[in-house]
Automatic annotation (TrEMBL):
The lineage of its organism: Bacteria, Pseudomonadati, Pseudomonadota, Gammaproteobacteria, Chromatiales. Keywords: Hydrolase. This is Alpha/beta fold hydrolase. The keyword Translocase does not apply. Residues 58-147 form the AB hydrolase-1 domain. It comes from the Bacteria. One of its GO terms (molecular function) is hydrolase activity.
Length: 260
């Protein structure tokens, strides 16, 4: 796993209260969707393939409705996870996610793209490891799958309330191991809940990182996030290329982060 220099780790810890306060802008990010219509609908149209959207911790299908509505309007068969409130990686939750994946694959007769927000992204990555033949690609939004800079107090509160450890079953292997399908991690340096370094994928032939400016709670409604998701989903099946930052995208999206 990636380890940060001590000075960088100290900065992340010291800035945590400020970053958490920035989560209050999530409402403004949702409101900005209306002003961002020209950008959002300049994204390439979808090819109709199924997309399963998984919510964050304590989120439900209502929380992912704006993202699913946008993807549906572009031509994708965007579907909710239909498992109620995401109460964490409890016993059987990954099995139920895989059942949902199998249903969509059988219904559409095509591979399914997985879009997971925060903890939902961890589910998406593990689903793709378990059933790669059913998955077209994985896109995560602020998902903490690498490094040791986790929001410790948040994790401890979850464990105290539920009695479950914050994580997935150990037999699935390291969380920072990328799935065997094209994988994109979308993250924000000003994320107030998940430190951005915990969402940085090791870049390879079929993995990439896209940095946006957003709160954690706004990642599923931020115009920059939504456009990036749509851009990634529009690639032809089995022809995956990294995100292209040419033209106006060069102004809106930073070049891939260098932790060092």
């Amino acid at each position: 796993m990636t380890r940060l220099p001590e000075s960088h780790a100290f900065w992340l810890q010291a800035s945590a209260p400020f970053r958490l306060a920035l989560e209050a802008r999530a409402g403004l990010e949702f409101a900005s969707l209306f002003a961002a219509q020209p950008l959002l609908y300049s994204a390439p149209k979808g090819d109709g393939h199924p997309v399963l959207v998984l919510p964050r911790l304590l989120g439900c299908d209502l929380s992912t409705q704006p993202l699913r509505y946008y993807l549906s309007s572009l031509g994708y068969a965007a579907s909710p996870w239909e498992l109620g409130v995401n109460l964490g990686p409890r016993h059987g939750v990954l099995r139920d996610c895989l059942t949902r994946l199998e249903q969509l694959h059988a219904q559409h007769g095509r591979k399914v793209s997985l879009v997971g927000w925060s903890l939902g992204g961890l589910y998406a990555r593990e689903m793709a490891k378990e059933a790669p033949d059913l998955v077209r690609q994985v896109i995560t939004l602020g998902s903490p799958f690498t490094g040791d800079q986790k929001p410790v107090e948040f994790w401890k509160t979850y464990e105290a309330v539920t009695g479950d450890p914050m994580g997935l079953p150990e037999h699935h292997g390291p969380l920072d191991e990328a799935p065997p399908v094209p994988t994109t991690s979308i993250y924000s340096r000003s994320d107030g809940i998940v430190p951005w370094t915990a969402s940085v994928e090791r870049e390879g032939p079929r993995t990439e990182n896209i940095e946006v400016e957003s709160s954690h709670l706004g990642l599923a409604v931020s115009p920059l996030s939504l456009y990036a998701v749509a851009d990634r989903l529009a690639q032809p099946e089995d022809i995956w290329r990294p995100f292209e930052r040419s033209g106006i995208k060069g102004w809106l999206y930073r070049t891939p982060a260098r932790i060092s």
